[in-house]
Amino acid sequence: MTSQSTMLLVAFLAVLLLLSYPLGKFIVQVAAGSSDHAPVPGFGWFNRIEQWLYRCAGIKAKSEMNWKHYALALLLFNTIGALATYGLQRLQVWLPLNPQHFANVSPDSSFNTAVSFISNTNWQGYSGESTMSYLTQMLVLAVQNFFSAATGIAVAFALIRGFSRHSVQSIGNFWTDITRSTVYVLLPLSVIFSVFLISQGVIQNFDSYKDANIVQSLDYQQPKVGADGQPVMGTTGDAAGKPVMEAANTKVQTLAMGPVASQEAIKMIGTNGGGFFNANSAHPYENPTPLSNFMQMLAIFLIPAALCFTFGFMVGDIRQGWAVLAAMTIIFVIMTAVVMYAEQQSHPGLTAMGIDQGHSLLQSGGNMEGKETRFGISASALFAAITTAASCGAVNAMHDSFTALGGMVPMALIQMGEVVFGGVGSGLYGMLVFAIMAVFIAGLMIGRTPEYLGKKIQSFEMKMTSIAILATPMLVLGGTAIAVMATAGVAGILNPGAHGFSEILYAFSSAANNNGSAFGGLSANTPFYNVMLAIAMWFGRFIIIVTILAMAGSFAAKKRLEPNSGTMPTHGPLFIVLLIGVVVLVGVLNYVPALALGPVVEHLQMFAH
Question: Alpha-carbon distance 519 to 508, whole Å?
């Protein structure tokens, strides 16, 4: 790592800690008041609006739920959201705020997008600025950005209550949890962040697209678009299933407009990742300056880090929150150092030819392919580690253009289950699953019934833990195997060999772990990938959530045992090391053979010639 990379990483972690601790204390008030409707400090006036929302929806907000009712309400809410998201995409041509007169989105793409935004994945097989109207972007996609993030926070609240309560059947009320998470956490932070982004140059308007005259004409190849607005795909030979390209020559460049800042804010705050533009956070209208880039990285990790402190305060031992945060941070720093180092290296083949691959305004040397010069290698590599450690998926560089080892790190961070800070809510409850596994392994070593936070870990909890840990690897590896065997799956590969395999593996890893980023060389906007990835996204999200809620209900019903001389401390260095070991070994071990076939082979091939 260069000194620039080191200083950037240290500054990022310092500011993150400074902001996340007070936010974590604030979120405690949001979670604690969900049953008694105690006004949140500083938002007492908003309590009246909250009560009005409950009355409008006919919700008995003071009535708490057991885990089954909580899970049923969550699944019903998200299913209705998916149906609405699908339907509005299919009707957008008849809806207002469509100045470009975009056609309705195809059924398979609408299905994929609906599941994607409901599950907090935000995988995008389309170009936003040439597919989605302003109303679709705002009413359909941005709204689900709020609700999917709030769903993750609600599940985290439910699991924490399972640890903090004893001898009860209830774990809270889903409707109040999701309402308060949205109203008191996500919405205020998004408003503040939107204003900041506008000050940096992110656009926010309803204008028609602008045509700008350019000094020099552009000669390039572009995908041919059919009458339905979708890319025309080849049907014969090597071109089968791939976009048909046609020549273009223009002296006019069309600049897309739209309400970008409002969607960009919740995209980051909610660890969603779906961009208004196809270039995502590499687009100057989404992420114009190095300062906006730094703040976007902070926004991704802010709530996941804060929830660690919320967890510590709610269970009555802040040291537990620090232990979880420390484990996340250590893994993150190690993985980030690897990707930063890898991207500072040049391709050996090009180096032998005397080609400087890393020249930019910020540095010379290293791999600048696929990166914005206004960010440089260090900020691009850090962004890649952050967005894949969290279940965000926003990108400010092309991960497909990273070095083999540099691209393997984001993939491995996703495959860990995105528990290294992770998504909003999902990162915390995912890491707590590994904590349960860690104390179970420790209990086996000493022949003692394992306990975590005073709750015995018994057969039911271990069955749910096993499902939560194994479900996503089965979806990833099973989906990848089907794709590499199916003709429709192989047709989407634009790069042969190991890298093509990596593209498919990354796609299913991203979908099943609800990340949303991609190796851009895979043509995934086809019926095969739209359906297969949607299945991975839905079950990768909701199988885990149901098992977490089941564990929350089981823990809440148990008595809380007082610690004794035989109780393993779960707040010290020994437990942190054990937890890290379990995450790395259990979380990644399933994927080692697949990683060996993809990025590892690709890395070795670079030195073979």
Answer: 11
